[in-house]
Fold this sequence. Notes:
Blueprint: H1 11-14, E1 29-33, E2 37-38, H2 50-63, E3 69-73, E4 79-83, H3 85-93, E5 98-103, H4 108-122, H5 127-139, H6 145-152, H7 156-164, H8 170-177, H9 183-188, H10 194-207, H11 211-221, H12 236-249, E6 253-258, E7 261-266, H13 271-281
Parallel strand pairs: 2-4, 3-5
Antiparallel strand pairs: 1-5, 3-4, 6-7
Amino acid sequence: MPPRSGLGKGLDALIPPGKTTSSGEGGGVTQVAIDLIQRNPRQPREKFDIEELENLATSIREHGVIQPIIVSPGKNGIYVLIAGERRLQASRKAGLRTVPVVIRHATDQQLLELALVENVQRADLNAIEEAEAYQHLEKEFKLSHEAIAARVGKNRSTITNTIRLLEASAAVKQALVNGQITGGHARAMLKLSAKAQEELLNKIITLDLSVRTTEMLSRKYSGQKPVSKKKISRSANVNDLERRLQSSLGTRVALKHGKKGGTVTIYYYSDEELDSLLEKLT
């Protein structure tokens, strides 16, 4: 499989090409009966777009499977899928009896890592599926957030912030899966009770609230005093600079500018957000 950008270590680094079975010696392509290939039990993705699969099946009927599926030998002649589940499902829909595969040995950890890498690179996972996969790597295989980040080609703070989404209430997590809110909305509500999260969630969806507004309302719900706003006459240029800084850093920024200089105050609300800011600023 050709290397792709954004794949972290990638398939060839996680499972060296030399580790093949005799039927796929040297990493070559071989045909395997489709009924002998089972789903990767570590696959974090639960749902696939039906229309997308139908379109791929139509293409496979006409052109065949262009890119081989990656499998690992299992027990009793069965192979475990490593990468290419969409191609496998579409091949079944297309009525194929065999598919081209590259056979490689893989541990349970590698099965999860590679399925995760493939889906993250394609942006196929929803935020909760991605968070659960990272958590499996952390808890079951004792990988640090830094190690996970290296494998999937993301920043450590991204891994930490994604895993934190699992602390959200059931309603907030379902809204994330449905695409009704973003991870930023969910993280802004994490310190609230489940009931308060659901109340604020309804407002976010009904009023189409921004992440920044959600953060301010979340502080209000938790009893924190809102940041006082002093009416100070400022130029449109200073206001524009403040908005640009907030957009770039993804958090609240207060810019005070005078004839002899000024100050820039950057706000953060968790250790993870501070880490993320430091990565952007250094």
